[in-house]
C-alpha cells in the first residue's frame, strides 16, 4: 500500500499524512480532499465510491474501521469480516489511489480513547426501519461519521445509496449541525445477477445466495407496480420476498423523512427491504416514481 498511498494507523500518523496533503495542495488551488468511510471487507461497491471520490477531489482518504458503536449486543461485531491486508491489496490493485492519498485504518482505541459520553442522536429517522430493527444503530453510525469527518477534515464525503437511510441521516446531521462538508451519494452497485454488493454477502452459502436474489427481484416487482399505487408496490414486493426470506420490513417511504407514503401518494418514493436469509440480514432499495414511470 505504501507504494500507492500512505497507511495511517494512529491519529498522529493521520495528522502527518494530511499535513503532507495540505502542503502538496498549496500550489494547486482550489484543492479538494474527499473521504470514503468503510468498515473494510472491500468489494467493487466500495471501489466505486473511491472512484467517485477520485473524480470529485484532488486527494482521497479511505477509512477502514469496524465501528463497535453501531452494532447491537446480539449483532455480528465479532464475526464481521476483517482483512486489512486484503483491503489494501484491493485498493492498490484497483489503481485508484496515488502517493498523495491516505488509508486510515485505526484500531477502536484510536477512534475511542474513552467510551464517548457525548454521542450523536439520529432523531426520528433513527427510530424507524433500520433504527427500529437495530436500536441505536444510526446513532452509532452518526457518532463515528462525525468523528471521522473531524479527524480527516474532507471537503466532500462519499457514501453509498445502498444504505439509503444512513445516507439520509448523515445528510440531516451535516445540515442540522452545520458540518462543513459536501455529502455525495453514490449509486448502489449490483452483481451481474442483481444481488446488491455487500460485505455481508460473504456469509451466504450457495443456496442462501440464490435465495438472496429475491431482494432485487422484489424491488423490480415493486417498481413495476409503481403506476398502480403504494399498496400495489408493497404487495408486489412482499409477494416475491416472503417465500424466499424472513422479511424484516418492506417499506415505501418518502425519500427525505423515511415515513411511509400515504395510500394515494404519487411522485418520488423509496422502496426499502430488509430480510434475513439464513443468519444473514440483508438490505436493498430502489427509487421509484409512484403513479408514473419507475
Ligand atoms: O456504511 C458503512 O460502512 C458504515 O456505516 C460507516 C459509514 C463506514 C460508518 O461506520
H and E string: EHEHEHEHHHEHEHHEEE
CATH class of the largest domain: Alpha Beta
**β content, as a range?**
15-25%
User: Compounds present?
Assistant: pantoate
Uncertain regions spanning at least 5 consecutive residues: none
Tell me the number of strands. 9
Return the structural class. alpha/beta
Give the termini separation: 42 Å
Approximate shape: globular
Strands across the major sheet, in which order? 1-4-3-2-5-6
* Main β sheet profile: 6 strands, parallel
Percent in helix: 25-40%
Number of domains: 2
Corresponding CATH architecture of the largest domain: 3-Layer(aba) Sandwich
CATH topology of the largest domain: Rossmann fold
Mean pLDDT rating: 94
Oligomer: single chain
CATH superfamily of the largest domain: HUPs
* Separate helix tally: 9
User: Rg, please?
Assistant: 20 Å
Amino acid at each position: 500500500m505504501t507504494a500507492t498511498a500512505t497507511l495511517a494507523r494512529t491519529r498522529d500518523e493521520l495528522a502527518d499524512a494530511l499535513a503532507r496533503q495540505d502542503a502538496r495542495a498549496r500550489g494547486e488551488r482550489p484543492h479538494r480532499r474527499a473521504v470514503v468511510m468503510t468498515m473494510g471487507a472491500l468489494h467493487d461497491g466500495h471501489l466505486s465510491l473511491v472512484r467517485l471520490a477520485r473524480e470529485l477531489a484532488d486527494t482521497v482518504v479511505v477509512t477502514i474501521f469496524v465501528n463497535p458503536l453501531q452494532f447491537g449486543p446480539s449483532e455480528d461485531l465479532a464475526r464481521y469480516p476483517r482483512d486489512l491486508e486484503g483491503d489494501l491489496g484491493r485498493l492498490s490493485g484497483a489503481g485508484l489511489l496515488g502517493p498523495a492519498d491516505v488509508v486510515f485504518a485505526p484500531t477502536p482505541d484510536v477512534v475511542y480513547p474513552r467510551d464517548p459520553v457525548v454521542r450523536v442522536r439520529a432523531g426520528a429517522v433513527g427510530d424507524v426501519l433500520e433504527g427500529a430493527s437495530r436500536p441505536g444503530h444510526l446513532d452509532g453510525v452518526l457518532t463515528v461519521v462525525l468523528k471521522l469527518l473531524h479527524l480527516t477534515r474532507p471537503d466532500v464525503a462519499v457514501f453509498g445509496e445502498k444504505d439509503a437511510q444512513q445516507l439520509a441521516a448523515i445528510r440531516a446531521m451535516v445540515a442540522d449541525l452545520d458540518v462543513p462538508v459536501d455529502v455525495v451519494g453514490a449509486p448502489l452497485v449490483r452483481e451481474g445477477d442483481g444481488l446488491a454488493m455487500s460485505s455481508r454477502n460473504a456469509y451466504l452459502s450457495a443456496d442462501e445466495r440464490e435465495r438472496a436474489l429475491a431482494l432485487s427481484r422484489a424491488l423490480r416487482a415493486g417498481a413495476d407496480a409503481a403506476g398502480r399505487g403504494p399498496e400495489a408496490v408493497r404487495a408486489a414486493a412482499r409477494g416475491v420476498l416472503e417465500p424466499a426470506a424472513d422479511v424484516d420490513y418492506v417499506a415505501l417511504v418518502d425519500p427525505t423523512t423515511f415515513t411511509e407514503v400515504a395510500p394515494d401518494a404519487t411522485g418520488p418514493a423509496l422502496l426499502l427491504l430488509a430480510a434475513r436469509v439464513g443468519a444473514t440480514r440483508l438490505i436493498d432499495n430502489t427509487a421509484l416514481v409512484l403513479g408514473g414511470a419507475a
